[in-house]
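Consider the tokenized backbone below.
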């Protein structure tokens, strides 16, 4: 007799009873503490992830001692979820270079990456303890991977905190100096905004302050890129895991139910939008330095005019330059405040969404282990269709399919599901879908795929689009930020290595590294870019 998930439950020669199989699996492999508790059996330690990164311990999963775990279901979920994590790279578009650089600068992500067992093999009949052990380890790897994502998220937050605090402290210091000059001028009942350009009244001191202001701007540029790549990678993984687990949930619950987000997450999502406000302040502040430079050049070239004419124009130029300096410092301060608030909310959202994925996975495993009493016979086919969707669709299209219940059920009920079939169903139900061919395989995107240089995939080739010119300019800016971030990345890498060495030394463990890390070798490692990307 075949269970609802394709598990061989028939007795006889060569077959293993369910109870004996579970006991063999618990002795041969281990799940995270909350996932491994079966029928009152005490949980065993979680397995270590590949490469020795972390312990794979579970976070935020409630114990369930009354649950009968079906390890064949674990194989299905582990295989599909492993495929979700593995296909996150292929679903990248414009920010593909940033995603790849985040993986290079955060090796722990690669070490904790789930194996991604072929999903169709996982849907077969599991009758040996070895296969069940692999299924159990797959679920444990998913939990360990979610825990590993928090490291890059926290690292990105620390870079952003350092950048924006530097901006706030520097701006506050300059504004304080300018305010002191205004107070001195107010005592004589003559306050000139133009003195904001020369708050000290001494040429060398004023030029030194201007130089420090420029250095501050350069350092903030260097510290912005490390946060961008890390948070982008974490966000992509969590969004794809969230969409995949929602599709798994819909496959296990054909009738469907209402899934609403908590009010706490909605509040965090609203706070995260402050990052968009910070982008607006950044764009506005970008126009200030060129305008100040143009006014300064105009004032300098006007020095050859008549005395009265020169004095009138010089005062006007000085006045406007003073206002621009005050505006630039104020805009940059507002940008730093909104950026800090938005990034803090985004980091908290990563934790919230990771916990939601864990809870959803726990519920799915609980449903699969509920004696298969309430699991329809169509579930194995529906799970196979989820695997096909994960293989072909990018993250945005997976989310669109999950939100469209009629389309989702039509795809789950299809006899076979190829990329062409998915695209036909999406067009029939009015869901936008665009093809893209990479590595000889057809993949589907919610919108026309975009390359790292802003080109769009149309009619079987990368072609220029209306926004390609703007995207090229932005790509050049990102490339500059990538190379300029090598120094802070090297400093952070050295600090991390020294901290780990101190911990190993305190524990009496000798470092396995054969040689010292020099600035040249570390910078060369960090500066490796994706030069294969073509314009």
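A designed sequence for it:
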């Amino acid at each position: 007799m075949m269970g609802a998930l394709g598990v061989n439950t028939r007795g006889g020669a060569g077959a293993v009873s369910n109870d004996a199989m579970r006991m063999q699996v618990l002795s041969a492999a281990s799940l995270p503490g909350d996932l491994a508790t079966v029928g009152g059996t005490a949980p065993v330690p979680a397995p270590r992830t590949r490469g020795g990164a972390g312990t794979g311990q579970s976070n935020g999963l409630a114990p369930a001692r009354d649950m009968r775990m079906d390890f064949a279901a674990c194989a299905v979920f582990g295989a599909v979820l492993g495929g979700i994590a593995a296909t996150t790279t292929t679903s990248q578009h414009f920010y593909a270079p940033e995603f790849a650089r985040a993986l290079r600068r955060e090796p722990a992500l690669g070490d904790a990456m789930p194996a991604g067992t072929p999903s169709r093999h996982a849907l077969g009949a599991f009758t040996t303890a070895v296969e069940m052990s692999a299924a159990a380890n797959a679920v444990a790897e998913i939990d360990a991977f979610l825990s590993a994502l928090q490291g890059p998220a926290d690292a990105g937050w620390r870079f952003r905190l350092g950048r924006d605090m530097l901006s706030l402290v520097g701006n506050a210091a300059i504004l304080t100096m300018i305010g002191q000059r205004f107070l001195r001028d107010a005592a004589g009942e003559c306050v000139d905004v133009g003195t904001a350009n020369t708050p000290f009244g001494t040429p060398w001191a004023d030029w030194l302050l201007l130089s420090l202001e420029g250095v501050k701007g350069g350092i903030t540029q260097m510290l912005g890129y490390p946060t961008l790549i890390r948070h982008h990678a974490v966000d992509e993984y969590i969004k794809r895991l969230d969409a995949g687990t929602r599709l798994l949930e819909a496959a296990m619950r054909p009738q469907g139910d209402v899934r609403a987000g908590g009010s706490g997450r909605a509040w965090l999502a609203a706070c995260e939008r402050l990052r968009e406000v910070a982008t607006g302040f950044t764009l506005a502040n970008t126009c200030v330095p060129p305008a100040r430079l143009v006014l300064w050049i105009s004032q300098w070239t006007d020095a050859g005019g008549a005395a009265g004419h020169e004095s009138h124009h010089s005062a006007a130029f000085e006045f406007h330059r003073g206002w621009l300096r005050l505006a630039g410092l104020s805009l940059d301060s507002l940008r730093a405040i909104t950026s800090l608030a938005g990034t803090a909310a985004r980091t908290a959202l990563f934790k919230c969404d990771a916990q939601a994925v864990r809870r959803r996975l726990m519920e799915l495993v609980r449903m699969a282990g509920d004696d298969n009493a309430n699991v329809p016979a169509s579930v194995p086919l529906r799970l196979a269709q989820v695997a096909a969707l994960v293989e072909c669709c990018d993250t945005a299209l997976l989310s669109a399919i999950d939100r469209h219940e009629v389309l989702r059920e039509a795809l789950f009920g299809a006899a076979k599901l190829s990329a062409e079939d998915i695209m036909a169903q999406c067009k029939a139900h009015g869901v936008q879908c665009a093809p893209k061919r990479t590595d000889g395989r057809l993949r589907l995107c919610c919108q026309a795929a975009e390359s790292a240089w802003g080109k769009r995939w149309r009619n079987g080739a990368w072609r220029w689009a209306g926004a390609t010119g703007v995207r090229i300019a932005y790509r050049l800016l990102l490339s500059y930020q990538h190379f300029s971030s090598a120094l802070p990345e090297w400093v952070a890498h050295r600090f991390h290595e020294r901290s780990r060495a101190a911990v190993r030394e305190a524990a009496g463990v000798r470092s396995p590294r054969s040689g010292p890390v020099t600035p040249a070798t570390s910078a060369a490692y960090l500066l490796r870019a994706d030069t294969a990307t073509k314009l």
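The CA atoms of residues 6 and 125 lie 6 Å apart.
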